């Protein structure tokens, strides 16, 4: 793999130490700053520097980041353009790893760990909603998780939208959607302005993944996934993984959060996470026809290597 030419250079006072991630629009570096210490710096990809929409979204991410102040949301430090023409965004350095990788290695997770993770995400997302912002791209890839402390941090407001956005200010045309198809709410597929209920759907999908080690839809292609989201209900939680059966209360909460009709979900993300936490911390969280040996199997399933 070729060495990143920006590693070892300084961008607007930030010494880029290592490339730690990359997406479709930006590359993320761990960096050091004389005043701010260890930070993460996102740099817009070179091919997008002249793309007005991409630049606007990049700047908007910083704007939204400064509006959402919460311990579970990474702090936005500053954004700007370096003398070399690089658009950059400096944010708080969050310890841990991307939740997506942790989930791939370890899910299904113990119920109490899932309850802790989902509650923190809900608190972060609720802070965005109270600031008038819908995240629109809530997924494990946009969450930092420290397994040692079970601490979660929400990041990346790159495609977020304000709930009071006007038609003229929208960056998404009608008939198109933004977000990640596996976690996007069905109502977002039309490209219309979505409500906070869409983030609740995404949060319920994350909870489903952490509990089952699988997703509520089993499509093999994006086209098939698109069709399933628009026409089929999600697979019930207790049918996701053979031998893994949660209490009816747990499944009911998850499936209500995944309801294809926004008004049929919980009133807000905190109501969803609160209901889920209550069920996941209950003594009968795991259920099954073979009560005698079931919990022993679960201990093995949830045991860490």
Can you walk through the features of this model?
The protein has 305 residues and is of the alpha+beta class. The protein folds into 2 domains: 10-92, Phosphorylase Kinase, domain 1, CATH 3.30.200.20; 97-302, Transferase(Phosphotransferase) domain 1 (Transferase(Phosphotransferase), domain 1). The protein is built from 8 helices and 11 strands. The strands form 3 sheets. Strands 1-2-3-4-6-5 form a 6-stranded antiparallel β-sheet, covered by helices on one side. A 3-stranded antiparallel β-sheet has the order 7-9-10. A hairpin with a 3-residue loop joins strand 2 and strand 3. The longest helix is centred in the middle third of the chain and has 20 residues, at 111-130. The model is unreliable at 166-177 and 290-297 (pLDDT under 50).
Q: CATH first level of the largest domain: which class? A: Mainly Alpha
The termini sit apart by 31 Å
Helical segment count: 8
Runs with pLDDT <50, length 5+?
166-177, 290-297
Portion in beta strands? 15-25%
Q: Please state how the strands of the largest beta sheet are arranged side by side.
A: 1-2-3-4-6-5
CATH superfamily membership of the largest domain: Transferase(Phosphotransferase) domain 1
CATH architecture of the largest domain: Orthogonal Bundle
Annotated CATH topology of the largest domain: Transferase(Phosphotransferase), domain 1
Helix content: 25-40%
Please count the beta strands (DSSP E, at least 2 residues each).
11
Morphology call? globular
Order of helices and strands: EEEEHEEEHHEEEEHHHHH
Q: Which structural category fits the helices and strands?
A: alpha+beta
Number of domains: 2
| Cα-atom radius of gyration | 20 Å
Main pleated sheet: 6 strands, antiparallel
Assembly level: single chain
Q: How would you state the average pLDDT, rounded?
A: 87
């Amino acid at each position: 793999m070729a060495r990143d030419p920006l590693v070892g250079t300084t961008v607007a006072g930030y010494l880029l130490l290592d490339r730690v991630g990359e997406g479709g629009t930006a590359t993320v570096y761990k960096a050091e700053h004389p005043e701010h210490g260890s930070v993460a710096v996102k740099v817009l990809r070179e091919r997008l520097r002249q793309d007005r929409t991409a630049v606007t979204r990049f700047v908007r991410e910083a704007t939204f980041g400064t509006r959402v102040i919460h311990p579970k949301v990474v702090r936005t430090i500053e954004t700007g353009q370096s003398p070399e023409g690089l658009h950059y965004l400096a944010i708080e350095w969050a310890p841990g790893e991307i939740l997506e990788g942790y989930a791939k290695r370890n899910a299904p997770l113990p119920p109490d760990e899932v309850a802790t993770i989902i509650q923190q995400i809900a608190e972060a997302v609720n802070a965005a909603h109270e600031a008038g912002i819908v995240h629109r791209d809530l997924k494990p890839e946009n969450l930092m998780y420290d397994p040692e402390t079970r601490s979660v941090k929400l990041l990346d407001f790159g495609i977020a939208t304000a709930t009071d956005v006007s038609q003229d200010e929208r960056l998404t045309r009608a008939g198109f959607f933004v977000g990640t198809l596996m976690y996007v709410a069905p109502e977002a597929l039309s490209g219309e302005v979505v409500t906070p209920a869409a983030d609740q759907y995404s949060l319920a999908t994350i909870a489903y993944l952490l509990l089952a080690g699988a997703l509520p839809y089993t499509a093999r292609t994006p086209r098939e996934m698109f069709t399933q989201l628009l026409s089929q209900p999600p697979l019930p939680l207790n049918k996701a993984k053979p031998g893994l059966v949660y209490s009816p209360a747990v499944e009911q909460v998850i499936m209500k959060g995944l309801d294809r009709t926004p008004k049929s979900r919980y009133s807000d993300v905190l109501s969803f996470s609160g209901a889920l936490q209550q069920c996941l911390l209950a003594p009968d969280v795991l259920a099954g026809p073979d009560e005698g040996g079931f919990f022993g199997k679960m201990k093995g399933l949830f045991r860490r290597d």
